[in-house]
Amino acid sequence: MIATQQLTFAYPTQSNVPTKQFTFPDFSCADGETMLILGKSGRGKTTFLHLMALLLKPTGGSIQIHNQEISHFDSAQAAAFRAANVGIIYQKPHFVHSLSVLDNLLLANYLANKSLAKEKAQHLAESLGFADHLAKKTTQLSQGEQQRVSIARALMNNASVILADEPTSNLDDDNCLRVIDLLKTQTSEIGASLVVVTHDQRLKDVFEKHLYL
C-alpha cells in the first residue's frame, strides 16, 4: 500500500547553519497493515511522515502508494492525491476554529471534492465518543476529544493510508491505550494501512511491526 526506497531529504540551508540531512531506511506497509515507527527526538520521524504525506518533497528516492510513484508530484498534484488517499493525524490538532466540529469533519470531504458525508461523520462521532459535541466549536473540546475528532477527520474520505504523528505523546496511560485502540479499530473498519510515528515507548507492545530510526 505504501512504500519508500532510498528516501533522502535535506532542509534548506540557513545563514551559518549547516543543512540538516536525513537518509531513511527502506519501508513498506501492506494493505490493512499497521506499522509503528520509533525514534528519539531529532531522528527525523515527523520529516519521514511528512514526506510520505507529500507535505515535503524528497531530495532523492522513491515513494509509492497503490504502486504509484508519487515523489515527483508538484504541489497541486500532491494536494489532490493526498486529499483522496491519505489521512493525517497531527501531533497538535489543526482545526478551523470558526467552524463547528461537524463542519470541520465535512471540510475533509469538501477539500477532496467529494460529497459531504454527514451520515459518516455522525457514525464516526458515535464510534469515537463525541456525538454530543458535533454542534460545538473545537475550542470547547478537551484535548482528548480534539484528538478523537482528528482521528475521525482523517477517516472521512476512506483514505487508503492513515499517518499519525505522535498521537499519544500528551496522553496518560489509560487515554493512550484508548486512543490507539480506537485508531486501530477505525482504520481496520475502512481497510486502511496505519503508520504511527512516535517516541512513545508504551506503544511497542501494541504494534507487531516496528521500524526504528
TrEMBL record:
Gene3D superfamilies: P-loop containing nucleotide triphosphate hydrolases (3.40.50.300)
Keyword annotations: ATP-binding, Nucleotide-binding
PROSITE patterns: ABC_TRANSPORTER_1 (PS00211), ABC_TRANSPORTER_2 (PS50893)
Domain ABC transporter: 2-213
GO molecular function, one term: ATP binding
Domain of life: Bacteria
Protein name according to UniProt: ATP-binding cassette domain-containing protein
